[in-house]
Amino acid sequence: MDRILDRRALFRVAVVGGGAAAFSGALWQEAFAAVAQPGPSPYGELLAADANGVQLPAGFTSRVIGRSRQRVGATGYVWHDAPDGGACFPDGSGWIYVSNSEVPLVGGASAVKFTADGTISGAYRILSGTNVNCAGGATPWGTWLSCEEVPWGRVFETWPGGGRAGVERTRMGRFKHEAAACDPVRKVVYLTEDETDGCFYRFTPDTWGNLDTGRVEVLCGAADLTDGPVTWRPIPDRDGLPIPTRLQVSAAKHFNGGEGCYYANGVCYFTTKGDNRVWAYDAAAQRLSLAYDDSLIPGGAAPLTGVDNITGASSGDLFVAEDGGNMEINLITPSGVVAPFARVTGQSGSELTGPAFNPAGDRFYFSSQRGTTGQSSGGITYEVRGPFR
Known about the structure:
- Pfam families: PhoX (PF05787).
- The protein is mostly beta strands.
- It has 2 helices and 28 strands.
């Protein structure tokens, strides 16, 4: 038990979204008294595209670590199609990057192992035979929750180090899952739902660290609420048959296409692609507010559209990937500035997925799900290095 607690303490700092943000929920709420607005990036303007077709600020470089249907580095492992949600995990003096595969029937997830200097030392499958694995989330005890984005989809708990089969966690609810984020203080897992009238859920395990049993609740509030208190109510039938979970509680607040989900220091941030919003749920105050809304950017000059996966850095910056838009990863600073951090060129038929920082916070990973071909077989996974603040 002591070893488990030690690991939890480590992952609480190093895993949740790739770095523990340095700003409390109260400070974020103060920063977002008005939603984020365009402004100068703390990293400066994007330069011309590099040899990998990636535009980055000065001082940053990219490399390709995986291409769908090609071997990863010097390993014999062939990288999966349609790479999607991802996260990093400490592994001795190195780390592991985990990535889902958003394809039907075979789905699953893979992992790439790195040594302390960033050398790829291995790659392998950690989940197979699942269906359209889109996003997910890391747990404080070092596992990866891989979520199926299909009706009555499931959550699978997987082990980044390999050597153990993924385990189905259907007590977390059967719906069109997207992402998950763990709150170690309240001991709950937040879950998004990718439906045009989807909901925002939380799963409270009977025992923290064991996802076998527990209760599922849905966030409730007025339909037009964008800033104010919310409540939680239990889902009567987590299996969603015959009535889908999102339709079982009349007071449930509905969101237009739930996507990424990220927790840090009392706040759970989640994105909705249908209205290009980033939401902030202050867990201590049980209050919902908007961190970003493209419709509130004057002059139609929103730099961030097609909001999708989200993660955060130790600086408190949020990094949001685009599905569509102009294929950028934008950052939102704690002071409420939104600006491009990276842009992938020549891949308009793709989407950016899986943003995650390594434990040290000096390497950043993401994928272009369909790459230059616009097909699931054309996925590309990147690493960015540079002077992250």
